[in-house]
Amino acid sequence: MGSHLSKQLERRKAISTEKKALTDLEKSCGCEFPGCDYMPSDRKNWMSGVGPEKLHINKIVWPGTHDSATNKIGIRFVSRPFAQCQSLSIYNQLVAGTRVLDIRVQEDRRVCHGILKTYSVDVVLADLKRFLSETESEIVILEIRTEFGHEDPPEFDKYLVEQLGEHLIHQDDHVFTKTVAELLPKRVICIWKPRKSPQPKHGDPLWSAGYLKDNWIDTDLPSTKFESNIKHLSQQQPATSRKFFYRVENTVTPQPDNPIMCVKPVTKRIHCYAKVFIIECVKRGCADKLQIFSTDFIDKEFVDACVGLTFARAEGKA
């Protein structure tokens, strides 16, 4: 009992120290980065606002959501707080400016997060298609994977093509150097990551797992995650030189050895430091490598930071 209590006290001290480290960094780093003064007039149509003809796919800083379809997962007030990473529906996330969705499914095509499940992936695709029908120049990266510990849904690749066929941008390395305008009217890059089923091939309507990479670490320590993100990002090639998407997740994860197991209060430790991360990327010389930037509980400040840097790149100022 004494040993357990001592360990918990050490954990709390470590978390407090790391939170202070980010707070101090925020105070010292300033508040400016290329595009920080740009505010999209309409987040629902922010790509259109920046300019589809000058917005290259490999110059976009894509605002993404982590575990995107968890707004109604599990049982409200019971199991939901342990798995919910977003409070908005897929449609409302897209309207708010999200352009990368992270969807995990199980064998029956229901969205899940670990052992907890929620609505069918049909709901996700319906929300996506509604958004596409209401906009003209917004491109969305839809990552769908079979959740760890689950089996692939049968013939899921065929199902995705049937549902999204007219909108799908086919797997092709040349896409990265094209502008949004050159890809229209196609609007969706769908990356399908099965566990056992065959991967999509070059020229297929779907994209294979290797086209979206990251270096996720499992920690609830905010400064540790922040510095790990910087370290791994700095090891990448510039976004304009890559033929894949690279994701940085501005999130931390509840740990079993810590009494706080709900997602929101834990991820809150890093959530507000997205702008600080971009500023530090600029200072440390790796801002040109930032591409997909994802978060829990996405908000307008996060979206505006991504869009601002994207605008600066489109204008040749970053």
Give short descriptive properties of this protein.
alpha/beta; four-stranded parallel beta sheet; 14% strand; 318 residues
Task: Please give a quick description of this structure.
The protein is α/β, with parallel strands linked by helices and 318 residues long. Helices cover 36% and strands 14% of the residues.
- Walk across the major sheet and give the strand order: 1-9-8-7
Give the overall silhouette. globular
Share of residues in helices? 25-40%
Assembly state here? single chain
End-to-end Cα distance, whole Å, is 55 Å
Mean pLDDT: 96
**How many runs of DSSP E, i.e. beta strands?**
9
Order of helices and strands: HHEHEEEHEHHEEHEHHEH
**Cα gyration radius (Å):** 19 Å
Uncertain spans, ≥5 residues at pLDDT below 50?
none
Query: How large is the share of residues in beta strands?
Result: 5-15%
List the total number of helices.
10
Largest sheet: 4 strands, parallel
| Derived structural class | alpha/beta
